Automatic annotation (TrEMBL):
Segments traversing the membrane: 12-33, 77-100, 121-145, 157-182, 189-210, 238-260
Cellular component GO terms held in the UniProt record: plasma membrane
Pfam family, one: ABC2_membrane_2
Coiled coil: none
Protein name per the record: Uncharacterized protein
Amino acid sequence: MWLALHRRRRMLAALALGMVVFETLIVVIANTIPPTQLFGGQGGTPPGAFKAFSGSTGDVSIASYPGLLGAGLVHPFWIAMQLTVIGSLAAAAVAADVESGTIELLMVRPVSRARLLAERTAALVIASVLLNAAATGTMAAGVLLSPRLHREVPITGVFSAGLLGCGFALCLTGFALAVSALGRRRGQVVGATIALGSVGFAVNFVALAWSRAAQLRFVSPFHYYTPGDALADGTVPWVSFGVLAGAGLAGLTAAFVLLARRDLAP
């Protein structure tokens, strides 16, 4: 576990720093320019499709302080950093060693397949929590230091959004590790992780923008990852968190089963 984190310490440090800088920018923008002016124009209402960018199921507009801060937690930059951590460490969990031919050397040591996957999964979870903590801590500091933001966004909402972000990361982690446990190439895992993130966001966007496709939103993890709603309400949407965590645990279970039954020969 520690070796997996040590090998990627520079990448993790750079991503955490990038997350802090990005969320600081979001807080500064929210504190400088009222969201209604930024997205609402001359008293207008943002298009319905903007719901996807506020991290909300529709109750929170992006032209509000919770919606604008929520946009910082579903922005493509935020998503890209999450996918980088998950794709990188998930690929290294199994598929990278199969591709390079080092998996057989690892299995010669008295280390079971389950322990190998469990410790590398723990490293991935630690890295994801670190990234979400960097975003949550920065946003919490910005809300506490700004009376304007603090009036509109409860501090409990910031931490609720952070916990929901961990649930979202766990959802993607389970899927990525299942692909890694089954795959033979690093690129397969990275590609599948990126595909789930990008396609999931696109499906949720289309479902919110087009009423005829509304039912598709239930298959996207972004329908359940609603930081904008958490920021506005100040509470964790436990049903959505349960769906994300449940999907992640199902993926992790599948990863252990697949790894136990597969042939590790190159």
